[in-house]
Amino acid sequence: MGIDHETLVGFAKSWGLFYLIAMAIGVLIYTFWPRNRKRFDRAKNSILDKDDKPWR
Amino acid sequence: MIAQLTRNERHNALIILGVVGLAGAALGLAGRNDLLGYHGLLIVLFSAMVALPVIRALDAPEPTLDREDEYYDDPIRVGVILTMIWAVFGMFVGVWVAALLAWPELTFTDQAWASFGRLRPAHTTGVIFGFGGNALIATSFHVLQRTSRARLAGQVTPWFVLIGYNLFCLLAVTGYFLGITQSKEYAEPEWYADLWLVIVWVTYFVLYLRTLARRKEPHIYVANWYFLAFIVVVAILHIVNGLAVPISWGSAKSYTIYSGVQDAMTQWWYGHNAVAFFLTAGFLGMLYYYLPKRAERPIFSYRLSIISFWGITFMYMWAGSHHLHYTALPHWVQTLGMTFSVMLLVPSWASAGNALLTLNGAWHKVRDDATLRFMMIAAVFYGITTFEGSFLAIRAVNSLSHYTDWTIGHVHAGALGWVAMITFGSIYTFVPSLWGRERMYSNTLVEVHFWCALIGTLIYVFAMWNSGIIQGLMWRTYNDSGTLTYSFLESLVAMHPYYIARTLGGLLFFIGAVVGTYNIYMTIRGTTAPRAAAGDVPVGRPLAPGE
Question: Membrane-spanning residues where (chain A) (predicted)?
């Protein structure tokens, strides 16, 4: 079976659209999931620590 | 530095250098009747030069301290020095090519290496890969360790990545002077240099992942996501666009496996994503770490930084075809590239806004601290350039701007205003602590650098905006009889004052980089400049003669 232009465009316009939107929704869910809030707050503040040694 | 390695690791380093040197010798022998021979010799000499300090320290005592107690900063220190050396080289060549455009006689007659066509890629490679690449490797090692609270996962591999990468840059730049090129913009190096970069880059990727795996922080800080995207995507781009068949093992020349419009599309898919992931993602990694660090304020919104990260990675991949408007590329592919380029404005401005809002409440620091100001201006230029990029990608706008100096103005707004500014800001942030100094040698010199860089960028970008738009308009002005009003030569004459201004702007930026290099050098030497504000010190009784 040869893949012609129409097939590719058809695929891009259907599944291409869906998977990009699905990924975008996935990212938004991860970002705004309430339980992640604490994790993110910790992450953004912990880089400001003054200690400059690896943790053991 | 070598004393930090165990005897076993020193031996491993020597074995690696030996293998690389042998490969170079084989390449040189196979290509002895070709330009390739010079590069074979270069690889052998390079390996020998790197091996020399290792051999001399081979029997030095083993490291006594527990290395896991400290971050591995030696490769970062060398990386910073290499960054500044490449900056001075790349920007010097940049000023030279700018001057050549204004005064074409400023070359060595009959010297092929000094022609514009060879100097220009030496400039672009010198600044993008030499300066930018070394800065990315050095800062990524620094940020990775600090945000993971773990030492790099390897003692020899960080050196392999850094030094191997510089061998690639050296092969690239010397190749252009010799006349070796694949003729693909920003992917000029030939097949053997490309293969070498694949090895180096995969090592870099594995090192990054292994260090992340050792992290003590539960969450991977967002700056690492950007650095990782940079490493992964550059590997993909480089491998796919670099697929080529050499005409023989003994020849530097190769032919790409793509042809015609497919070649053009692959090249600009590569080219634009090089801008996206080499010149943007990694530098955003710097922005998300060093800007909050320097301002001593957490990033305004961590959630926004995640959304902009995924926005950038999803959308940039599709934008490359906007480089091929009005070409043989199918119209719908052009439209696709244009659409994604316009959408990209959203995550780009989210990052720029996030950075500026982080500074909200710390503007007094921005006023007083040139280092922070470097990063603030970088965020502003990031916003300007991404807006301009989305705008220029629109097909109708592109019909005016394409092939004109507007494109060069756009690139330099990004390269000087965003990439170089965030790099200098980051370097000034961590250089003092990296060498155990309290502060930079001279804050006045940081100010001098800042103003040289800012004024130079503004002159450069305004000159090219003017020149590009005039050029574009002259090329499309028709007279009553339906023919072009201006000849190409007339448009060239109209460019001349702008080319002189551009050279001046570039020269200022270059001077700033030289001042910065001197300042870093003096900081490393451990001296501090005498304070300028001596007027505040009480004046003692003047000494009488003979006292």
Answer: 15-33
Q: Do B292 and A40 touch (CB under 8 A)?
A: no
Cβ of A44 within 8 Å of Cβ of B298? The answer is yes
Q: How many residues does chain B have?
A: 547
Cα–Cα dist B347/B280, whole Å: 12
Chains A, B: CB pairs < 8 Å: 68
In a domain, residue A41? The reply is yes
Instruction: Return the domain boundaries, chain B.
Output: 1-59, 72-528
The ipTM assigned to this model is 0.90
What pLDDT, in 10s, does the model give residues B149-193?
999 999 999 999 999 999 999 999 999 999 999 999 999 999 999
Length of chain A: 56
Contacts of A46 in chain B (CB under 8 A): 217, 221
Closest CA to B251 of B173, B180, B301: B180
Q: Do B217 and A43 touch (CB under 8 A)?
A: yes
A13 contact B CB<8A: no
**Cβ–Cβ below 8 Å for B71 and A54:** yes
CATH number of B72-528: 1.20.210.10
The count of structural domains within chain A is 1
Domain that holds residue A40: 5-49
